[in-house]
Amino acid sequence: MAVEGLGVAVIPTSIVENELADGRLQLLATELKIPPLTFSASWLASPDTLAVELVADLAARIASETTAIVDAPRRARH
Amino acid sequence: MVDFKSIETFLWVVTLGSFRGAGQRLNTTQPAISQRIAQLERELGVKLLNRDHRVVSPTPSGRQLMVYAEKLIGLRAEMLAEVGERSAMRGVLRLGVAETIVHTWLPRLIKSVNTAHPNLSLEIEVDITPNLTARLLEQEIELAFLVGPLSASGVRNRVLCDYPVGALARPRQWPPENPGSREISDHHLSAQVPALRDRALAVQPARSAADPAACQRLARHRYPHGGRGPRGRRDPDIDR
Questions:
Q1: What's the ipTM?
Q2: What domains can be seen in chain B, in order of their start residue?
Q3: Which end is more exposed in chain A, N or C (fewer Cβ atoms within 10 Å of the end residue's Cβ)?
Q4: In this complex, how many residue pairs, one in chain A and one in chain B, have their CB atoms less than 8 Å apart?
Q5: Angle at Cα B221 formed by Cα B216 and Cα B227, nearest 5°?
Q6: pTM for the structure as a whole
Q7: What residues of B are in contact with residue A42 (Cβ under 8 Å)?
């Protein structure tokens, strides 16, 4: 809807990288400090969580690699 | 001969407090669960579970067995991790994912799981964080990637990533009184995104989601139109 010009979207910027890059959306400056969203892998403790922990480990590695890629050009611009 | 299957069944019946829950967890039927427990009781010659209440609870012998069952199943998992081939990891893992993750790195994770553990399949559902929390606590999913960490008891968390949140609009459209400006006042922003107003007022955003019923109430209250934001735009995860 924001792309259609129907309002302001307050969302994690990383999900609209393409729209920001090609100019369909722009980031507005705000006085309001919008806290970042922290994502976690969460599961219930039990004796057999091997598969769950393996997938959570992979996710942590991939998420940190992806975040590093997202952050790099942003830091470079500053 | 007492086998792993019956021990695992017993463990899940006690952990989940029901035959039905254990059946779902182990992908089998309630009668099959009853049969395994009955056989285990026959083999050990003692009664393991009290079935007279709606919630199944262990007898004193059942509690004793539970100590060993946890050790045995934990040790089996450790053995498989240490000794087994990577492809030995098999089965279905039910995973709940917040939308932001779907749009960022979920595809890479799926590929990587398929490569590293070809016999492990992911059953993925996408929902907002309060719903994922409720589903996790109800044991309907085994793992969730959500806005966390969760502080409910018995929940293990691993922080994955921080994503900056921004106010975004089509260029030269906002704010209406000054199109082309790249700034938006707090007033306008709060008017545009009522959810943010609550969030800005709260010094520490409420992070705990210990009570699934409360989560669902919150989800209903915040998303009265069935998962859609106040302006019809689905705001993934912003509001929890």
A1: 0.78
A2: 4-82 (1.10.10.10)
A3: C
A4: 271
A5: 75
A6: 0.63
A7: 133, 136, 143-146, 148-150, 155-158
